[in-house]
Amino acid sequence: MAEPTVRMSGIVLASLMFQHVNSDSDVEGLILGESKFEEQVTISDSQADHIHIEEIYNIQKHVACHKLNTFYNSVGDVNVEAVKRLLPDNKQESVIGWYRQRRNTDQLMSFREKIVHENLKTSLSNPHMIFVLLTPSKLTSPGSTHRMEYAAFISRSRKFINVPVLVNNLGLLEQLSYWKVSAPCSAAGYNLTMKKHGSKFFSSNGLLREVNEVNKMNESLQAELQKACRDVEESERVVETLQADVSALRKPVEDPPEQKNNLLLHEAVRALFSCSPLFHTQTLTLEAFPVPAVCCGAERDDGDDDSTSDALKTQETLSLLNQNRTNCRKRLKETTEGRERKRRKNHTLATRHKQKKKLRIVIKWRRFSSAK
């Protein structure tokens, strides 16, 4: 729900006080201005964007009644014609509420004021209406010092709420608060001045000429930015297409297909290995001769003669293998004995040579000693 706030300038507040001080009785009248909703977005790093909606009532002017109960009767019914008579130069849409000045009373609305307020909302078809109450009182008995209290009220579902009132040039206000103040109600002199000199500074749509130029420049920049975005998008699509082509070309390079020549070569080698016995694994004898293959699972279709002849061949082959193995062992033994004899002979010769060398040294030493 929007938080309501009432804003007025110091001039308007001083005018209300001055009028009340110069009158002998209570005073009431209508309030002119505008009501609007402002949306404030607070951006911070600690939390998400916070949106704050504020309902602002800007009081720009007041119209006083010559006497009490001018636009309503004793029961509280509002007379719309009387309201129009109070607004000769102002539109009815500029009415945002009414006010009442009472002396030496509390800051509370009376029952009649509540009824008049609800009827005024219905008669003017404006649900956003405010009621401003001013209650002056004497601080000293001679009347040299007075105290003026003011408050604003709005009704929500027939429940009246006290709304804070902010005066632009009173209190500690931020510098931007003056920018939020709406322009006062137009007067005749203001309209004449604007018609006379406004064409030099303002265009037909009511904006400054410099603002129109800035808007045109902004539109041109936006058009160029959109064009650049379209170019970037097209270039990205081209890059994606090229990347897809490169990926498609890399697959054959990484996984090359087998060539037909290699397949034919493999088939030829397999056929050669399977047909030629030279490429098969064979058992060799000690003399490096291949051992004939022994067929254990020979075919028995030729009868007993074939089986007998195969057995004889197998025995002969085995006897030849045993004979070859015996001869090989004998040769190894003879070779080992010859090497041993040769090693002993060489050792004996080396020993004799060393002894002869020692004798020569001894003889030379004796000769040398005898000569001395």
What can you see in these coordinates?
The protein is α/β, with parallel strands linked by helices and 372 residues long. It has 7 helices and 8 strands, in the order βαββαβαββββαααα. Among the domains are: 3-184, Cytidine Deaminase, domain 2; 281-345. Strands 7-6-5-4-2-3-1-8 form an 8-stranded mixed β-sheet. It is 48% helix and 19% strand. The longest helix has 68 residues, at 304-371. Mean pLDDT is 76; it is low at 295-304.
In short:
The chain is built from seven helices and eight strands; from the N terminus they run E-H-E-E-H-E-H-E-E-E-E-H-H-H-H. It is of the alpha/beta class.
Please describe the structure with a list of short key phrases separated by commas or semicolons.
elongated, Abraxas 1, BRCA1 A complex subunit, FAM175, eight-stranded mixed sheet, 372 residues, Cytidine Deaminase, domain 2, nucleus, polyubiquitin modification-dependent protein binding, alpha/beta, single chain, 8 strands
Q: Helix fraction? A: 40-55%
Termini separation: 140 Å
**Apparent shape:** elongated
**Total DSSP E strands:** 8
What is the fold named in CATH at topology level of the domain at 3-184?
A: Cytidine Deaminase, domain 2
As a percent range, the share of strand residues is 15-25%
Q: Characterize the main sheet.
A: 8 strands, mixed
CATH class of the domain at 3-184: Alpha Beta
**Can you name the CATH architecture of the domain at 3-184?**
3-Layer(aba) Sandwich
Judged by helices, strands and strand pairing, the structural class is alpha/beta
Q: What is the number of helices?
A: 7
Spans of 5+ residues with little confidence (pLDDT < 50)? Answer: 295-304
Query: Spatial order of the strands in the main sheet?
Result: 7-6-5-4-2-3-1-8
Mean of residue pLDDT values: 76
Order of helices and strands: EHEEHEHEEEEHHHH
Rg calculated over all Cα atoms: 62 Å
Give the CATH superfamily of the domain at 3-184.
Cytidine Deaminase, domain 2
